[in-house]
Design brief:
The protein has 21 helices and 4 strands. It is mostly helical. Helix 1 (5-21) packs across helix 6 and helix 19 packs parallel to helix 20 (534-544). The relative contact order is 0.12.
């Protein structure tokens, strides 16, 4: 039987983290250079922010129903632009990292560090930096696309890179025997081999991108209003005005758009990509799509689309095929390429050293009291992250096991869970504020709830995957031994789930750190509300124009999250790989 969504989800997450959590991966010079590069990039963004306007006025957001469709289309356009950019970056970056050994020694560790960084911690820096050099509307639009891009691209790139590195040797030999050039090999071997992984990772990237799109569309700090006309800003404005009817309309449009994309885009792509699966035994159920079936059986649309796609492929063959030379294993050519690489490395190293010097100089201007504030904020946010992860773990494990082991329950509940997971938590945050601000410590509770909503689905899907993948013979053995319910959980279920839970915890914790930027500091009803935390510290520094504090708090958050990934999650992931493997 073909794997279910949950099994694919876990497989791809495992491949995703396999690039950075493999037991063979240790700290090396590439990791150090990657961290320094990231630090310098953050400094450049903060330094550009010095020129940002002190007051930025946002657009007027209308709650009239006729604007709602326009806002939905604007949000969808930003998602499409970010995904297209992610796909182009993925193909180029992954191809170079996989086939250029010297470049890969730096590019893979850099990718590993970047995927560990809380993306939303860069939002204030990117917005302020772009606002200093571009018109406000252009800066806000570009920043939203960049933010969504950084939420989508890492797992896509890891999937593509791993696919290129794991193409079977006999297929590569066949392409060499038939003298395929690079373009023909890419078109007929590499891209088809990676198609299934890219499509499933695209679905995961698209679902995560909604969260960051909403965050970008509702972002306001002090006198700087970076809101964008879109479905997120519409929901935020409706909540600010207490218009429950408008909130319901906005959520209905958002959910309808997510469901429509699933049925009209992702399901057809999954059904189409099944032809690229490598297997020696046929049979079993195959991915299906009513939309794909209707399109393929059409006597008018299908031939027209085939001719259109054929013309595009022919044009690409003519243009790209003539530009890309065939690969050559020429030692002289490699020697000629060595000197440009060496010169580039020297220049790049000089730039990094100068950037590091300027970064340290800015950080030394920060008073000791501010460093104490950062330390307290890190502790407070870490506590909320831990609370959100523990709450998620408490309910996702029993429910995930029930869904993964009971086909009837899975048949009707799993589609509901998939749609619920695609609805971004940031779209519901204004509604949560309306309900929770009246309670004692309401914003603290709301912050934990938002972190929970951004983390729980990663855990749930992984637990479902783990429960679904327990071999049937082990279940029969447990039944023959007449194990009690507790013995079955202790001996079979929990050990089998351990690798999946660790994978889910890694992504869940990252999502919680990300959510702290919008959860700990918010402007609601004309009043700024904040709680102690590193996300709040970043937002307050942005509002005040305190750029040394902004740099220090952002770097501190990044370094703490990377350190936790390396010192906590990686050892646990190695333990899961070595001790709790079903083989």
């Amino acid at each position: 039987m073909r794997p279910t969504l949950t099994i694919y989800w876990n497989t791809l997450l495992s491949r995703f983290f396999g690039g950075g959590t493999s037991p063979s991966r240790r700290w090396n010079w590439g990791d150090a250079v990657a961290l320094v590069t990231l630090t310098v990039l953050i400094y450049v963004g903060v330094r550009m922010a010095f020129e940002a306007p002190a007051v930025i006025r946002g657009p007027h957001i209308s709650l009239s129903p006729e604007y709602l469709v326009l806002y939905a289309l604007l949000s969808l356009t930003r998602m499409v632009a970010a995904y297209a950019l992610s796909l182009v970056f993925t193909i180029a970056y992954g191809y170079i990292a996989a086939y250029n050994q010297r470049a890969g020694q730096f590019m893979v560790p850099l990718l590993d560090v970047l995927q560990s960084v809380p993306i939303l911690s860069f939002l204030p820096i990117v917005l302020l930096g772009l606002a200093a050099i571009l018109p406000q509307a252009v800066a806000a639009e570009l920043a939203s696309v960049v933010l969504i891009f950084t939420s989508q691209v890492w797992n896509l790139t890891f999937s593509w890179y791993q696919s290129l590195k794991t193409i079977p040797g006999e297929l590569r030999e066949a392409s060499s025997v038939f003298s395929f050039d690079r373009w023909l090999r890419f078109k007929t071997l590499e891209l088809p081999f990676a198609a299934i992984g890219l499509i499933w990772n695209s679905m995961m990237s698209w679902a995560g991108g909604w969260f960051f799109l909403m965050a970008a569309e509702i972002f306001t700090v002090g006198q700087r209003d970076f809101r964008l006309p879109g479905i997120g800003a519409y929901l935020s404005e409706a909540a600010r005005q207490g218009n429950l009817y408008a909130i319901g309309q906005g959520l209905a449009i958002l959910i309808a758009m997510i469901a429509l994309l699933d049925q009209a885009v992702w399901r057809p792509l999954l059904a189409w990509s099944d032809r690229f699966k490598l297997e020696t035994v046929g049979g079993g159920s195959e991915p299906s799509s009513w939309f794909f079936g209707a399109w393929r059986s059409s006597r008018v649309i299908a031939p027209a689309v085939r001719r259109f796609l054929g013309a595009i492929v022919a044009s690409l063959d003519h243009v790209i095929g003539g530009l890309i030379p065939s690969p050559r294993n020429n030692e002289n050519q490699q020697a000629r390429l060595h000197w440009p690489s060496l010169v580039g490395a020297i220049i790049g190293g000089g730039v990094l050293l100068y950037g590091t010097y300027r970064t340290v100089a800015m950080l030394l201007d920060l008073p000791g009291q501010e460093w104490a504030t950062i330390a307290l904020g890190l502790l407070a946010t870490a506590t909320r992250v831990l609370a959100a992860v523990l709450i998620a773990l408490a309910w996702t494990v029993p429910l995930g096991v029930a869904i993964g082991t009971k086909p009837r329950l899975s048949a009707w509940l799993q589609p509901v869970v998939q749609i619920a997971a695609s609805v971004p938590a940031t779209a519901l945050f204004p509604v949560l504020l309306l309900a929770l601000l009246a309670l004692p410590a309401g914003l603290n509770i709301a912050a934990v709830v938002l972190m929970l909503m951004g983390t729980q689905w990663y855990l749930l899907f992984n637990v479902i995957a783990g429960a679904s993948s327990v071999p049937q013979d082990l279940k029969y053995t447990a039944a023959l031994l007449r194990l009690s319910r507790w013995q079955k959980w202790r001996i079979l279920i929990l050990p089998a789930l351990f690798p999946y839970i660790i994978t889910g915890l890694i992504t869940a914790a990252g999502g919680a750190w990300n959510a702290s930027i919008v959860a700990e500091y918010t402007e609601f009803g004309g009043t700024v509300r904040s709680v102690t935390g590193i996300g709040s510290a970043i937002s307050i520094a942005t509002a005040r124009g305190d750029y040394p504090m902004l740099l220090a708090s952002t770097l501190s958050m990044v370094l703490v999250v990377v350190a936790i990934n390396r010192m906590v999650w990686r050892p646990l992931y190695r333990l899961a790989e070595e001790r709790y493997r079903l083989e």
